[in-house]
């Protein structure tokens, strides 16, 4: 229940934070995609903990084992099963909170729903699960790039009150924050060091974009591309908000500003974020995601124990002081999974329609089309 995403590219994940392994099964994967176990390493490394002092110190190797669905290096069209073993779980850290509900975490709600929970490392509610979303999306990103020239990228767009002063994609992969302004990295290091020392945590915003998406992907009415993107992003741990294009800033805009003018040589702006009527326009897709601050803190906070007594909850163990720092590859992954699924659905129903005239460029020369 609730562990599968997608209609035609169906990804089911399984596993807990401190269980022996986590994994996923992709059903509906197109045959013939070249897939090698080593191809997962780059994106999993980008998501991983323990690589810098600004994330949790847990250090997993995140080596992907391909259990099925690949023969002689190519997907066969049968269920593609991927497995990652957990090798650095320290369940002892969770002995105390096994009898407590952390404020702001999923302990209480899992308990109320199932009447039983695996408290070790947050069990199934841990973001360890997102490893498998990133792994599954490696396949989706590859197919989208090869078949449609779709390119998916992302960056951190805010930590606490700090926003990028400049936007340079080239800077993003060169710092531990996925930050698009190299000049601010030292400021972020200082900010995060002070935050970590204080024992507190902070929220963040991630922006992800897809370039090259053709017009026509997305389904009215309940399968709208923006609706599915919002659901996909909201399914990521700690997400409290999703914006498409200008999102909530649209509230203060006039129609004359927000509507994206069209010209024979392309769109004149991209306030809509590349989606109209739930269907892609051919412009850049722009999705922005709000992450709440980490709830597991060593600073005491009011919670309850299993008997309903008030307790001061203190969470030890290894935690991210800002979960958003590692979330860029996860948001990219969900964008890729939604696009892959929508691309296959579009092909299934409308594959015979072909290219319809007039087809205009994503951005008119000199037009303000979005996000770099
Ligand atoms: C990349 C990432 C890392 C996370 N790391 C932690 C963590 O170290 N400690 C923690 O308490 N929560 C962490 N979370 C958030 C929890 O998984 C999440 O808050 C919890 O499952 C409750 O769900 P909710 O916040 O979506 O309501 C992380 C989330 C993400 C996306």
TrEMBL record:
<comment type="function">
    <text>This reaction introduces a second double bond into the aromatic ring system.</text>
</comment>
<feature type="binding site">
    <location>
        <begin position="292"/>
        <end position="296"/>
    </location>
    <ligand>
        <name>FMN</name>
    </ligand>
</feature>
<feature type="binding site">
    <location>
        <position position="277"/>
    </location>
    <ligand>
        <name>FMN</name>
    </ligand>
</feature>
<dbReference type="InterPro" id="IPR000453">
    <property type="entry name" value="Chorismate_synth"/>
</dbReference>
<feature type="binding site">
    <location>
        <position position="318"/>
    </location>
    <ligand>
        <name>FMN</name>
    </ligand>
</feature>
<dbReference type="GO" id="GO:0010181">
    <property type="term" value="F:FMN binding"/>
</dbReference>
<dbReference type="InterPro" id="IPR020541">
    <property type="entry name" value="Chorismate_synthase_CS"/>
</dbReference>
<dbReference type="Pfam" id="PF01264">
    <property type="entry name" value="Chorismate_synt"/>
</dbReference>
<feature type="binding site">
    <location>
        <begin position="237"/>
        <end position="238"/>
    </location>
    <ligand>
        <name>FMN</name>
    </ligand>
</feature>
<feature type="binding site">
    <location>
        <position position="47"/>
    </location>
    <ligand>
        <name>NADP(+)</name>
    </ligand>
</feature>
<keyword id="KW-0521">NADP</keyword>
<dbReference type="GO" id="GO:0008652">
    <property type="term" value="P:amino acid biosynthetic process"/>
</dbReference>
<dbReference type="InterPro" id="IPR035904">
    <property type="entry name" value="Chorismate_synth_AroC_sf"/>
</dbReference>
<comment type="similarity">
    <text>Belongs to the chorismate synthase family.</text>
</comment>
<dbReference type="GO" id="GO:0009073">
    <property type="term" value="P:aromatic amino acid family biosynthetic process"/>
</dbReference>
<keyword id="KW-0028">Amino-acid biosynthesis</keyword>
<keyword id="KW-0288">FMN</keyword>
<keyword id="KW-0274">FAD</keyword>
<keyword id="KW-0285">Flavoprotein</keyword>
<comment type="subunit">
    <text>Homotetramer.</text>
</comment>
<feature type="binding site">
    <location>
        <position position="53"/>
    </location>
    <ligand>
        <name>NADP(+)</name>
    </ligand>
</feature>
<keyword id="KW-0456">Lyase</keyword>
<keyword id="KW-0057">Aromatic amino acid biosynthesis</keyword>
<feature type="binding site">
    <location>
        <begin position="124"/>
        <end position="126"/>
    </location>
    <ligand>
        <name>FMN</name>
    </ligand>
</feature>
<dbReference type="GO" id="GO:0004107">
    <property type="term" value="F:chorismate synthase activity"/>
</dbReference>
<protein>
    <recommendedName>
        <fullName>Chorismate synthase</fullName>
        <ecNumber>4.2.3.5</ecNumber>
    </recommendedName>
</protein>
<dbReference type="GO" id="GO:0009423">
    <property type="term" value="P:chorismate biosynthetic process"/>
</dbReference>
<comment type="pathway">
    <text>Metabolic intermediate biosynthesis; chorismate biosynthesis; chorismate from D-erythrose 4-phosphate and phosphoenolpyruvate: step 7/7.</text>
</comment>
<dbReference type="GO" id="GO:0005829">
    <property type="term" value="C:cytosol"/>
</dbReference>
């Amino acid at each position: 229940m609730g562990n599968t995403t997608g209609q035609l590219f169906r990804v089911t994940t399984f596993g807990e934070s401190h269980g022996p392994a986590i994994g996923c099964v992709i059903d509906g994967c197109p045959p013939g995609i070249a897939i090698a176990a080593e191809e997962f390493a780059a994106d999993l490394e980008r998501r991983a903990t323990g690589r810098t002092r600004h994330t949790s110190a847990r250090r997993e190797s995140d080596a992907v084992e391909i259990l099925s669905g690949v023969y002689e290096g190519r997907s066969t069209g049968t269920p593609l099963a991927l497995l990652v073993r957990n090798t650095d779980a320290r369940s002892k850290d969770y002995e105390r909170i096994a009898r407590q509900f952390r404020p702001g975490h999923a302990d209480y709600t899992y308990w109320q729903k199932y009447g039983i929970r695996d408290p070790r490392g947050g069990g199934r509610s841990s973001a360890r699960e997102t490893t498998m979303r990133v792994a599954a999306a490696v396949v989706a990103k590859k197919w989208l790039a090869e078949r449609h020239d779709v390119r998916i990228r992302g960056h951190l767009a805010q930590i606490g009150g700090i926003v990028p002063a400049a936007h340079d994609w080239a800077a993003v992969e060169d710092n531990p924050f996925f930050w698009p302004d190299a000049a601010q990295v030292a400021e972020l290091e200082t900010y995060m060091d002070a935050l970590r020392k204080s024992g507190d945590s902070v929220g963040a915003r991630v922006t992800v974009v897809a370039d090259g998406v053709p017009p026509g992907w997305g389904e009215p009415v309940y399968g709208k591309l923006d609706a599915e993107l919002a659901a996909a992003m909201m399914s990521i741990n700690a997400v409290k908000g999703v914006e498409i294009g200008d999102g909530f800033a649209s509230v203060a805009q006039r129609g004359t500003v927000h509507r994206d003018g069209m010209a024979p040589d392309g769109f004149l702006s991209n306030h809509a974020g590349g989606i109209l009527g739930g269907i892609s326009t051919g412009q850049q897709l722009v999705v922005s995601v709000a992450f709440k601050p980490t709830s597991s803190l060593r600073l005491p906070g009011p919670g309850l124990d299993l008997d309903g007594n008030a307790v001061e909850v203190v969470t030890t163990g290894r935690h991210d002081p800002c979960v958003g720092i590692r979330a860029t590859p996860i948001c990219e992954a969900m964008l890729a999974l939604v696009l892959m699924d929508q691309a296959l659905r579009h092909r299934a129903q409308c594959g015979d329609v072909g290219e319809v005239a007039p087809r205009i460029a994503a951005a008119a020369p000199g037009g303000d089309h979005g996000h770099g």
